[in-house]
Amino acid sequence: MIARLKYLAHRQARPQRYRFLKPLLAHEAMGAEQLQHYQQKQFNAMVSFATEHTEFYRNSYKGIAGPEFNPTALPILTKQDVAKQRDAMVAGGLNQFGLKTSYTGGSTGKPLAYYYTDEKIERMRAGMMRSYRWAGWQQGDKVLNFWGSRHDIRKHRKLFDRLRRFAAAEQTLGAYEYTETDLHSWAQHIQSWKPTLLQGYASILAELARFVQRRQMRMPSTIKGVFSTAEVLYDWQRAAMESAFSCTVFNQYGSREVPNIGLQCAQGNFHVFSDLVKLESVPVDDENRLLVTSLTNHVMPMIRYELGDLGRLKEGQCSCGSPFPLMELDVCRKNDLIVTPGGQMIYPSYFVHLLDGFSGIEQYQFVQQAPGSIVLKLCAGQQVADTVGQALKSRIQADLGSTMSFRVDRVESIPRSRSGKHRFVIGL
Ligand SMILES: [Zn+2]
User: Fold this and answer.
1) Closest C-alpha among 37, 102, 88 to residue 255
2) 83: phi > 0 → left, psi -120 to 50 → alpha, else beta; which?
3) If you measure from the C-alpha of residue 265 to the centroid of ligand 1, how many angstroms do you get, rounded to a whole number?
4) Could you tell me which of 356, 396, 338 has the C-alpha nearest to residue 236?
5) In the chain, at which end, N or C, are there fewer CB atoms within 10 A of the end residue's CB?
6) Phi, psi (deg, nearest 5) at residue 411
7) Would you say residue 404 has pLDDT above 80?
8) In terms of Cα–Cα distance, which of 345, 317, 316, 319 is closest to 332?
9) 206 CA distance to ligand 1 middle (Å)
10) What's the CA gap between 41 and 275, in Å, rounded?
């Protein structure tokens, strides 16, 4: 009854979001072929819209985006293009009503500015609501967010006080920096508030899950799913969350500038939301680079935008019954690769697993400062650091070559990036 009231109140407060949700739910009932046709139509429409309404696309698509254009002939949009051309990418000019600026995390270390409107946020939230339903969430059910981004949190300082909004059935905890005391109070809050979903950065949720396991805290059976987002989700993190919260972990794929790209279903397959985006995998220098086109962003069209992630589209269908096509996401970004003295590229998961079995490590980060050289930043006691240092040095040199240099730097803490993400491995 209360859930129903909350849902009605929320619907009243966010009419646009629910209006956007309706067609999204209808798309889930389409067949795969029908969806593909829909996507094609939306993509063509977006290209014409961008060519007509923005200076940037008008110039860069000159002579290419005619009526019979070849999509793969359209140039790739890089982050550098966005940094230089963002004003010229806005449809309808910069002085239009309601235009706001936000920043992406900037995995390259430098935040990237982009423009958006409230409508884009409502579309994003509608897309997220559709995703939640994959876990059995229903409108009105509670969602507890752990957002780590400094600029998201600034406006929500006293979160527990301010965000207890009856209508939203949603609360957000500022998880930028935290201590054991915070983890304890969050776990207690989950016990008393009994949310249906937990959502946040993989590293934060995994940390919380490990805390809950260590303290053997009982989590409420109301939790139907954990939505991991914004960071690579490692297997050990998924396992910790599944065991601590006794539910399925759903891995979301998207970025701030183009949200809701895909979702890993309960069967473990990644689906592309092909009614919201067109995803392409383009081979460049032995890598399959992912390009995304937002099919709904008419404020600042993003067409064939290079995300900085690697992956590929997959044929076939999933037993979960979703008509959305499948993809594979490599568990690393280009700048998370480590280069050996011989020029071999090593995936971050190799390094992450090197620490399997060691205890007493609070935080860590592998950093490559020069080719053939790696530093492990470690928050741990001196004895642990010494043991890890010796063990890893011989292992790394055995696996990656005896000229690979390795050392451990003990540190007090490892700062998160400005967006709040923790990166386990940082390449050159
Ligand atoms: Zn599936």
Assistant:
1) 102
2) alpha
3) 5
4) 356
5) N
6) -130, 160
7) yes
8) 345
9) 23
10) 10
Query: Are the C-beta atoms of 354 and 399 separated by less than 8 Å?
Result: no
Write out the two tokens for 40.
């094609």
Cβ pair 163, 156 in contact under 8 A: yes
Nearby residues for ligand 1 (ion, Cβ within 5 Å): 265, 267, 269, 318, 320, 322
Domains and CATH numbers, the chain: 2-330 (3.40.50.12780), 337-426 (3.30.300.30)
Residues 186-203: tens digit of each pLDDT? 999 999 999 999 999 887
Helix (H, G, I), strand (E, B) or coil at 425: strand
Give the Å distance between the CA of 127 and the centre of ligand 1: 17
Report whether 308 contacts 335 (CB < 8 A): yes
pLDDT at 126 > cutoff 90: yes
Residue-wise pLDDT for 36-90, tens only, equals 999 999 999 999 999 999 999 999 999 887 777 889 999 999 888 998 999 999 9
Average pLDDT score, the chain: 86
Ligand 1 centroid, distance to 327 Cα (angstroms): 11
The 10s digit of each residue's pLDDT in 285-311 is 777 889 999 999 999 999 999 987 889
Q: Alpha helices of 86-225 — where are they, by DSSP H?
A: 118-133, 150-153, 159-162, 180-193, 202-214
Task: Please determine, for residue 334, whether its predicted confidence score (pLDDT) is greater than 70.
Answer: no
pTM of the model: 0.79
Map tokens 């939640």 to a residue.
132
Residue scoring higher pLDDT (72 or 415): 72
